[in-house]
UniProtKB/TrEMBL annotation, chain A:
Name of the protein in its database record: Spermidine/putrescine transport system permease protein PotC
PROSITE patterns, per database record: ABC_TM1 (PS50928)
Domain ABC transmembrane type-1: 69-258
Family: Belongs to the binding-protein-dependent transport system permease family. CysTW subfamily.
UniProt key word Ribosomal protein: no
GO process annotations (BP): transmembrane transport
Gene3D superfamilies: MetI-like
TrEMBL record, chain B:
Name of the protein described by the UniProt record: Spermidine/putrescine transport system ATP-binding protein
Alphabetical list of PROSITE patterns matching this protein: ABC_TRANSPORTER_1, ABC_TRANSPORTER_2
One GO process term, biological-process aspect: putrescine transport
Organism, scientific name: Alloyangia pacifica
Highest taxon in the source lineage: Bacteria
């Protein structure tokens, strides 16, 4: 085999790498640092303090954030569970049902929400709910979240299912397992890493969503991202940075978990 | 069901004119065979000959396009895999990685409705049979390839299937282990008395283990017979060529009658030899087994040939020779005290009894 090209030798590789990393992560780092600022200014450093974190939990806006957080987590868990169930069923159809009419079209439909501009989905969802006479509120957020979480749950689940050879189910059926038993006792346990990974990804996507939520939420119903946006409209206070940093932390933990579980499942066997 | 009226038979499996088509490709062209109860039956052929397809049809992983597959007289072709009393040892074993050896082995029993205690006892029994009793609580991933192979065997034997199907189960093992497992497998087959249908492309495996062999090629059965019949009395060119080494010579056939033929060898000598069913007068193909040709220093013999090269193989030496008519020929000599003929030496060849056989095409 030819020696692989060493990218690091390309002119400007180092500079471009650092520029990209800087543009991507500098804002996050700055927000995280200033969340520990003792000053009320968001630009001037006034020493280290945890007071804005205390403010998030006990300050004047604390009840609003608490309700929003409860809404966010409830919706994220529920939507992620539903999306994972649907995505698992879809993955079985795509990877185990052989060839059927409209398979390619189905796959495109499952993944379409990844490609449709989110603002279009947001407007369409709102119009749809109004047309069928649904009152906007928690339920509409929940339904909308299930829909856009499906492709995110589907990707790791389907990838995992592709890596499980169908000889295991054949062996199960050869040993007198009905197709359902072969799925439940053999394929499903082998799919667990993919399913968990898909669930966590869907959860975090739902937790972070602003645009669609903002359209389909009813008056007075807030999730964390919409609550934060609401506060920012009245001027950025350092407590926003604290709550953003907390949210960032939750995201990092879940995405990392999702990745570790997905990888652990691949190396096992 | 009308099938219950089928006559009692000593056949474990009857393959009756099975055709398997994938779209425009035909993998099996009307294959028929009977596999006796308690028989070690091998499907032998090169890759793509349809042997694995046939096995998968018996297991139920493939639907047959035409024909019937009867298990102890009952047509199982319409049944799904989990309703067929056959079990499979897969080429890659397909042991469930999330279950212990014991759980793998009792899986089939529990699906059949055995109690947990009975299933565990039976699992222990078959694991002892394959000498893996002490590994019952391990995961398949913690076992060597040879041990995994034996777990796969134990798992498939545990429910006492009417027929055990084995899909090239030794191909993933290294040579030494493969030879050891061969005799072990044969012993287990005798002990359990279950009919084995064994798929392989390895003729040595087939010859050493089988009661009978079906040689397949391109979706057709070429010949069914005991290892000895297949080797010593191949019915056509494909079988003669595929099983063991052979020399195929173009000869002129002057007479065929009662399974014997009179032929004219290149060089002019006459020979009478056995003829396969379907051999005809005219141009024909003669199979000469290399180990049944003897050389004569005097130059006497039915054939004259020149040594072009020799290959030392330990117990034997292979002489690559050329006949006066230009055809190449291989002779195998057992190594002993005698000298090996030099390159360029002109020798006579004696055709021993049973070395030659006229083939049908």
């Amino acid at each position: 085999m030819a020696k692989p090209v060493d990218l690091r030798r390309f002119t400007g590789f180092r500079a471009i790498t650092w520029l990209c990393l800087f543009v991507l992560y500098a804002p996050l780092v700055i927000v995280a640092i200033y969340s520990f600022n003792d000053s009320t200014s968001i630009t001037r450093w006034g020493g280290f303090s945890l007071k804005w974190y205390v403010d998030v939990f006990t300050g004047p806006e604390a009840p609003k954030f608490r309700d929003a957080a409860i809404n966010s987590f409830t919706i994220a868990i529920g939507a992620a569970i539903c999306a994972t169930l649907i995505a698992t069923a879809a993955a079985v159809a795509m990877n185990r049902a052989g060839r059927f009419r409209g398979k390619t079209a189905s796959l495109a439909l499952i993944n379409l929400p990844l490609m449709v501009p989110e603002i279009v989905t947001a407007v369409a969802s709102l119009v749809f709910f109004i047309t069928i006479g649904f009152k906007t509120g928690l339920l509409t957020i929940f339904l909308a979240h299930i829909v856009f979480c499906i492709p995110f749950a589907y990707l790791p689940i389907s990838a995992r299912m592709q890596s499980v050879p169908d000889m295991y189910e054949q062996a199960a059926m050869d040993l007198y397992a009905t197709p359902w038993e072969a799925f439940r006792l053999v394929l499903l346990p082998l799919m667990v890493p993919g399913i968990l990974s898909g669930f966590l990804l869907a959860f975090i996507i739902s937790l972070d969503d602003f645009l669609i939520t903002n359209f389909v939420k009813g008056a007075g119903v807030e999730t964390l991202p919409t609550a934060i946006f609401g506060s920012v409209k009245q001027g950025i206070k350092p407590n926003i940075m604290a709550i953003s940093t907390l949210l960032l932390g939750v995201s990092v933990v879940f995405v990392t978990l999702s990745w570790i579980i997905g990888r652990a499942g691949q190396t096992k066997r | 069901m009308a099938d219950n009226a089928a006559p009692l038979t000593a056949n474990a499996v009857e393959i009756d004119n099975v055709v398997k088509r994938y779209g425009f490709v035909t993998a099996l062209h009307g294959v028929s065979m009977q596999i006796g109860d308690g028989e070690f039956f091998t499907l032998l052929g090169p890759s793509g000959c349809g042997k694995t397809t046939l096995l998968r049809c018996i297991a139920g992983f493939e639907d047959v396009s035409e024909g019937a597959i009867r298990l102890h007289g009952q047509d199982i072709a319409p049944l799904p895999p989990h309703k067929r009393e056959v079990n499979t040892v897969f080429q890659q074993y397909a042991l469930f990685p999330h279950m212990t050896v014991s759980q793998n082995t009792s899986f089939g029993l529990l699906r059949l409705g055995w109690s947990a205690a009975d299933a565990e006892a039976r699992a222990k029994q078959v694991l002892d049979l394959v000498q893996l009793g002490q590994f019952a609580e391990r995961r398949p991933g913690q076992l060597s390839g040879g041990q995994q192979q034996r777990v796969a065997l134990a798992r498939a034997l545990a429910p006492r299937p009417k027929v055990l199907l084995l899909d090239e189960p030794l191909s993933a093992l290294d040579l030494k282990l493969r030879q050891a497992v061969r005799s072990e497998l044969k012993a287990i087959q005798r002990e359990t008395g279950i009919a084995f249908v064994f798929v392989t492309h390895d003729q040595e495996e087939a010859l050493t283990m089988s009661d009978r062999i079906a040689v397949m090629s391109a979706g057709h059965v070429q010949q069914i017979g005991t290892p000895r019949e297949i080797y010593e009395a191949p019915s056509n060119r494909f079988v003669a060529d595929f099983i063991g080494e052979t020399n195929l010579l173009d000869v002129t056939v002057s007479r065929v009658a009662d399974g014997a033929a009179e032929i004219l060898l290149p060089g002019g000598a006459r020979l009478s030899c056995p003829a396969a069913l379907g051999a005809r007068v005219g141009q024909g193909h003669l199979s000469l087994r290399p180990e049944r040709l003897g050389i004569t220093i005097s130059g006497q013999g039915q054939l004259q040939a020149t040594v072009e090269d020799h290959v030392y193989l330990g117990t034997d030496t292979q002489l690559h020779m050329r006949l006066g008519s230009g055809e190449a020929l291989v002779v195998r000599l057992q190594n002993g005290a005698g000298a090996i003929p030099e390159r360029g030496a002109r020798l006579g060849l004696e055709i021993e009894a049973g070395a030659a056989r006229l083939l049908s095409d």
